[in-house]
Amino acid sequence: MDETTVEKLESVYTKYIELDGNAISILQDIQAELDYIPEEAVHWISQKTGIAASMFFGIVTFYTQFYMKPRGANIVTACCGTVCHVKGSHRIITRINDELKLRNDEDTTRDGLFTVEKVNCIGACSIAPVVVINQKVHGKMSPEKMAKQLKSCKDKKSE
Ligand code: FES
After folding, report:
1. Quick check: CB of 1 below 6 Å from ligand 1?
2. pLDDT of 65-87, one tens digit each?
3. pTM of the full predicted structure?
């Protein structure tokens, strides 16, 4: 790990001591500092705190709020619930993967600009198919509208 990462972890550890934190709060703080939770960071904080690394890994894999891989600058969440599926979410996902040149096993673009997630029903079935882009809900989505949204995200990045 580089010096900056270690400094950030030291500050997480200090906060843990001062505020009598717990494993979940440590992980939240690591993610807030580093944007994700690298495996090396878990081992580092485990040694410092004496909390077993397996405890941290158990929490990280249980809660969907934690990420062990870097995420893209833009988060695209495609709903694959039943209603969205019936309304054509598979065509939208195919378009997303084509536009971003993602293979089936990839969820983040190589340039780090996008991470694509698939979820089951976000509770907005009346406007299906639904895609959430950077926490903004887009209903009645189509492959063409999706391509425009992705282009807009790319254009913002290059501004
Ligand atoms: S199935 Fe997609 S919002 Fe409900």
Report:
1. no
2. 899 999 999 999 999 999 999 99
3. 0.77
